[in-house]
Amino acid sequence: MDKLMRMGLFGPILVLLTGFVASAGSATETRVTDTHCELQGITIEYDFPAAKIDGCYLNDKGAIVIQTAPEDEPINPSPWYAFRISAAEPQQVNIAIEALGRGMARYNPKASTDLRSWRNIEHVKENDIIYFSLAVGPTPYYVAGQEIFANRDYIRWLTSISELSGSTLFNLGQSAQQRPLPALVKQTQGNTEWLVLIGRQHPPELTGAMALRAFVAEVFSGSALSKQFLARYNVLLAPNLNPDGVALGNWRHSTGGGDLNRDWFDRTQPETTAVHDYLQAIVNSGEQLVYGVDFHSTWRNIYYTIPADYLEHESNFSAEWLQRLAAAVPYEVEEKAGTSPGRGIFKQYMADVYGIHSVTYEVGDETDRNEIAVTAQAAAQVLMQYMLERP
User: Fold this and answer.
1) If you average pLDDT over residues 310-333, what whole number do you get?
2) CB 3.0-4.6 Å disulfide test: which of 15, 149, 234, 315 passes with 308?
3) 157 with 241, same domain?
């Protein structure tokens, strides 16, 4: 509390500003538009992919209060925020990020000048508000709850993977707002077995996206193991299933009406339908889905699996893979097996529709970034070796 008082961020909050509003006891003007807000020589912009701001105003202590609101409700409380901030003259700025609706202070603030290198910002959390101070000037800073990896970044990344691996880049379909659903397939004539990799069903879950990219890099690395694996198995990769939510800075949902990872049975949304149609085409051609990995983020590293006794076919697949992974990395590997009948979760869909095991690969929001890469690389290596040992 003392630290927050020193930062000058407590005190009554002004009404939300629209147009010009003078802060109490001063003649300071604040302008709020659809793309930016201007306060005391400070400009806050939210006109770029993944940006998220739903309110911007000054409190009576002179701190900038930035609001983020959910795209709809009910919703998992994972308030996302991202903006660009600059000032006409160098100065120290006090900022409060406030989550509206069913929100909580989940994502720790990070700053970047180039959208590539990010640093953590010292901060304090109080209920649904994050408080911090930032030195700003004419050179803009990006501030976000996690590192930003936007839709165009996926296309660039997939293009490079495709060129290096000889795989095919294509679109599975289109999102509710007609954005492409980029995918990559590596298929060798005569191969009938498939590994399925998907990600970014929930837009803010960037650590899961980091793990997916490191995992995929290992699968397509060109190593002896990679070559042996791809000589037997086909791979479908759909790393960005919610491009609408990514572009708009959504907390969790797509623009088609809800949580994609609750829609795999009903398939009311075009994103889940596109993946389902592709998987159906695979099995209808007489080929076999073997395993699926769905990358996410949560409070800690954990692997949600289907219980061994739920499926007769290769009942210990996930448990055996994760036991081997635990022996390969100097980090804890926590497995939690369980079922979610009727909830529309991807791993349950894979079990009930195709009779195979899969995993929800969850990565902690603040897990060390090097640990994410090392673990994902090892996870891919161990999985490839394990799958090569199958009869």
Assistant:
1) 97
2) 315
3) yes
